[in-house]
Specification:
Layout lengths: L1 H16 L8 H10 L17 H8 L5 H10 L3 E4 L2 E4 L8 H12 L2
Antiparallel strand pairs: 1-2
Length: 110
């Protein structure tokens, strides 16, 4: 009976192992931050003109659509408040959406 259950579970285990865990590329995310001058308004932990990445990660924590919400924010130039004034948030420029998704995952992992 045990052998039967083990054989029955093998395809599911194989399927899970076939999807490698996607690790965040810290160096690529930090390079994209530098290239887009994000550090002008944001840091990991300290308030500047914009919220720190840790605060952003806390805001989205536990939300099933967190990645999509942050991706939309970074790619659509939403209006944000800066010093009490409405201002367009700079749209992230990258070579691919995968690069931006890596940045999104980097921010959410802070």
């Amino acid at each position: 009976m045990r052998a039967f259950l083990l054989l029955k579970a093998m395809p599911a285990v194989g399927l899970l192992l076939s999807f490698p865990a996607q690790a965040v590329d810290d160096e690529a995310a930090e390079s994209l931050i530098r290239a887009n001058d994000c550090s002008k308004c944001h840091t990991v932990a300290r308030e500047k003109e914009g919220p720190p990445y840790r605060k952003t990660a806390e805001k989205y924590k536990g939300k099933p659509d967190a990645e999509q919400l942050l991706l939309t924010h970074l790619t659509t130039e939403p209006v944000v408040k800066v010093d009490g004034k409405d201002e367009k948030h700079k749209k992230i420029q990258a070579d691919s959406e995968a690069d931006i998704m890596n940045l999104v995952q980097w921010i959410l992992s802070r």
